[in-house]
Write a structure and sequence with these properties.
Layout lengths: L1 E3 L6 E2 L4 E2 L4 E3 L2 E3 L4 E2 L4 E5 L3 E3 L4 E2 L4 E5 L4 E3 L4 E2 L4 E3 L2 E2 L4 E2 L4 E2 L4 E2 L4 E2 L4 E2 L4 E2 L4 E2 L4 E3 L4 E3 L4 H8 L4 H6 L11 H12 L6 E3 L1
Parallel strand pairs: 1-4, 2-5, 3-6, 4-7, 5-8, 6-9, 7-10, 8-11, 9-12, 10-13, 11-14, 12-15, 13-16, 14-17, 15-18, 16-19, 17-20, 18-21, 19-22
Antiparallel strand pairs: 1-24, 22-23
Length: 201
Amino acid sequence: MMLEHTGMRPQIHPSAYVAPNAMICGDVTIGEDCRILFGAVITAEGGPVMLGERCVVMENAVIRGSRRHPVRLGSHVLVGPGAYLTGCTIEDDVFLATRATIFNGAYIGTRSEVRINGVVHLKTVLPSDSLVPIGWIAVGDPATIHPPDEHDRIWAIQEPLNFPREVFGLERAPEGETIMPELMRRYTRALARHREDSVLD
């Protein structure tokens, strides 16, 4: 299904294929010979999403652009089933396996691989020819790659990147307090713009 969002319509190259139950919303550009498979969601939440040539977005993957963090995929990129990409840049010839997660501001260089359940964290920079092993986590600029049981080492790099400020524009709450009411007030207000979306034929 194609949706117009905030006055912006998807631009799909005539040679591309979009499955009938995939959802393409707003300022999304899908390049030549791309294939968007069943249940995939590509949505421009105030910032564009651009796919180059011969990209494949597999079943139930989600790609989300935001005002502060657009998404750009180069050419020959495979986005595996159930993967989640938000606000990131992916260069050419990249393989993102099943359930890979790529966060806002992340950059993945050419010929890199993020294997099953791999994570590339906020504002992390993976140089060309990088590999994130199955279930491992890349964090920082330049990236260091850690197994999931190294939470303290990962957090030492991740905490100063300040996810709440970078993604939601809010400072992290002091211990014993929460930013969730204000965060959700802002987020639900922003997402309310979807009430005005129009289905395109």
